[in-house]
C-alpha cells in the first residue's frame, strides 16, 4: 500500500507540474501575440501618416486609384488632408 501511495503522489505532482507548464506557455504566447498586434498597429499608423505628407498632385492620383479599387479607408484619409 505504501508503494502505491508514493506512485499516486508522484502522478499528482507530475500532473500539477504539467498543468503549470501549460498555463505558463499560454500566457507567454498571449504576450507575444499582444506585442505583435501593437507593432502592426504602429507600422500601419506610420504608413497611413505618410499619405498626409504627399503633395496635392500625388494625392489626386492616389485618390483616383483608391476610388477605382474601392479602398474606402484610404479615400477618407486622402480627402481629410
Task: Write a brief caption for the model.
About 90% of the residues lie in helices and about 0% in strands. It contains three helices and no strands. The protein has helices at about 1-50, 55-70, 70-80.
Order of helices and strands: HHH
Largest sheet: none
Point out poorly predicted stretches: none
**Number of distinct beta strands:** 0
Radius of gyration: 27 Å
**Share in β-strands:** under 5%
Structural class: mainly alpha
Compute the separation of the termini in Å. 81 Å
**How many distinct folded domains?**
2
Count of DSSP H/I helices: 3
The backbone outline, from C-alpha atoms, is: rod-shaped
Structure, described:
This protein has 81 residues and is an all-alpha fold. It has two domains: 1-50; 54-81, no CATH class. The protein contains three helices and no strands. Helix 2 packs antiparallel against helix 3. The chain is rod-shaped and about 85 Å long.
Topology at a glance:
Blueprint: H1 2-50, H2 56-68, H3 72-80
Helix pairs in contact: 2-3
Key traits:
single chain, 81 residues, mainly alpha, 2 domains, 3 helices, 0% strand
Amino acid at each position: 500500500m505504501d508503494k502505491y501511495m508514493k506512485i499516486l503522489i508522484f502522478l499528482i505532482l507530475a500532473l500539477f507540474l504539467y498543468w503549470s507548464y501549460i498555463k505558463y506557455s499560454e500566457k507567454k504566447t498571449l504576450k507575444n501575440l499582444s506585442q505583435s498586434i501593437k507593432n502592426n498597429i504602429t507600422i500601419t499608423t506610420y504608413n497611413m501618416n505618410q499619405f498626409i505628407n504627399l503633395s496635392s498632385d500625388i494625392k489626386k492620383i492616389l485618390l483616383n486609384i483608391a476610388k477605382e479599387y474601392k479602398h474606402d479607408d484610404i479615400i477618407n484619409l486622402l480627402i481629410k488632408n
